[in-house]
Amino acid sequence: LIMVNNLVKTYIMGEVKVRALRGITLDIKSGEFVAVMGPSGSGKSTFMNILGCLDKPTDGQYLLDNVDVSKLTRNELAKIRNVKLGFVFQGFNLLARTTALENVELPMLYSDKFDSIERDEKAKEALRSVGLTKRINHVPSQMSGGEQQRVAIARSLVNDPVLILADEPTGNLDTSTSVEIMNIFQKLNEEKNITIIMVTHEHDISQYSQRIISLRDGKLIEDYKVENR
Amino acid sequence: LIMVNNLVKTYIMGEVKVRALRGITLDIKSGEFVAVMGPSGSGKSTFMNILGCLDKPTDGQYLLDNVDVSKLTRNELAKIRNVKLGFVFQGFNLLARTTALENVELPMLYSDKFDSIERDEKAKEALRSVGLTKRINHVPSQMSGGEQQRVAIARSLVNDPVLILADEPTGNLDTSTSVEIMNIFQKLNEEKNITIIMVTHEHDISQYSQRIISLRDGKLIEDYKVENR
Ligand SMILES: Nc1ncnc2c1ncn2[C@@H]1O[C@H](COP(=O)(O)OP(=O)(O)OP(=O)(O)O)[C@@H](O)[C@H]1O
Ligand SMILES: Nc1ncnc2c1ncn2[C@@H]1O[C@H](COP(=O)(O)OP(=O)(O)OP(=O)(O)O)[C@@H](O)[C@H]1O
Ligand SMILES: [Mg+2]
Ligand SMILES: [Mg+2]
């Protein structure tokens, strides 16, 4: 599903260059559940943003489903994002003046796969699965940090994506809520064969994945299988 | 330092009442290092916002340094916040168009304790202690999640506060960066007798504190000492 070759991302700030990714090469097969780990500032979110077609690399190739993403137009990239991908952002990125229910319905509006009754049902079911039935009409400022994060998780899976990219999805969640979320991801991966790439800094959470890749200073330093899941 | 009696916080949304805190009673002595734990949505941030004089309870008493906070004017509350308190918000709350250095200097501008040369030195030292010397001129959008969180941590301690309230300060940090941050908090607590109240969902992080209080559905359900620190 994903083939990345010598991926480089350099941010230029005036005179200063920040080399966030310094040549990453790896493959991820359809249906894999991969955890991405590494120190703060090592390039995890930068890597996820490129995989999610939200940002372009400075150099190197990225093939998604055998299509060279760098050759696509902005509209084609937006289409891939809206139809194939689900994204949990590190900062949640919810629309501030919009309720939890409307935030979760949003991806379905873009992808045009469901009618309005189906959208309402799927959004409510996704919010129920993350334990937020009682907060569906709350806007983000009326919810706790972990509740906002769970709205972002519900939004990422509502469109039946091919690939879910989750950046620190349990950063604001207590252990038992985290376990419920990881069970949802694991079920989507095993029953619907959805590919999941998840950044985490928590060892316990990484053990739900099948494979762990570690970044340090923008380079891939480890890539190993998880034993005894 | 802190005495809380039957603290209640109820949010009113049209017809719906959300009882975020349902009567919390406890004391925290000067120089204590307390961890606050509990499920997502249990009232931890609501409790921290009231302790930090950023929000008023719906009912109950809060004495800070034997002063009844509910009797204070807005200006007096702001003065307490700027001079006595350091705050690490769950959402970082950095100023977006402002560099890391300027964000960390901000509390010192309000408290008027230091001149401009001292402010610059103290801010750089605080950013050095959290490992961000190379990012002092970056604005938040030019930093990773964990780097923004560390700017927020540096900002909370730069004013030599009496009390630091840290809401999930390691939620976006890898283990070794988290250990560095916890060593900073522990040193401030042991060497400068700064009182620290810290929300965390990670058991390993809670073990740096001397006392753990647990909330569930807005109530205090556990309050115990940490053994074998
Ligand atoms: N402005 C508000 N209006 C209505 N309800 C609110 C408001 N702010 C918070 N709440 C609700 O109050 C409850 C407690 O929120 P709080 O932010 O204190 O929880 P928390 O323990 O910090 O959770 P988390 O660990 O997820 O950050 C939540 O269920 C939340 O939905
Ligand atoms: N727009 C930008 N301009 C300049 N530097 C940037 C920009 N965005 C990110 N960086 C830098 O690139 C590096 C990698 O950032 P990235 O967000 O990928 O890290 P990360 O591994 O996700 O970290 P964290 O675990 O803290 O979230 C960081 O050091 C950051 O300061
Ligand atoms: Mg990140
Ligand atoms: Mg909170």
Q: In oligomeric terms, what are we looking at?
A: homodimer
Which structural class is indicated by helix and strand composition of chain A? alpha/beta
Low-confidence stretches of chain A: none
Helix content of chain A: 25-40%
Strand order, main sheet of chain A: write it out: 6-7-8-3-9-10
Report the portion of residues of chain A in β strands: 25-35%
Q: Please state the average pLDDT score of chain A.
A: 95
Tell me the radius of gyration of chain A.
17 Å
Bound molecules: adenosine-5'-triphosphate, magnesium ion
Q: In words, what does this structure look like?
A:
- The structure is a homodimer of 229-residue chains.
- Chain A is of the alpha/beta class and 229 residues long.
- Helices cover 35% and strands 28% of the residues of chain A.
- In chain A, a hairpin with a 2-residue loop joins strand 1 (2-13) and strand 2 (16-28).
- In chain A, helix 3 (100-111) runs parallel beside helix 5 (145-157).
- The two termini of chain A are 23 Å apart.
- The interface between A and B is medium-sized, with 35 and 35 residues.
- The structure holds adenosine-5'-triphosphate (ATP) (2 copies) and magnesium ion (2 copies).
- The site of one magnesium ion has 4 residues of chain A, from helix 1.
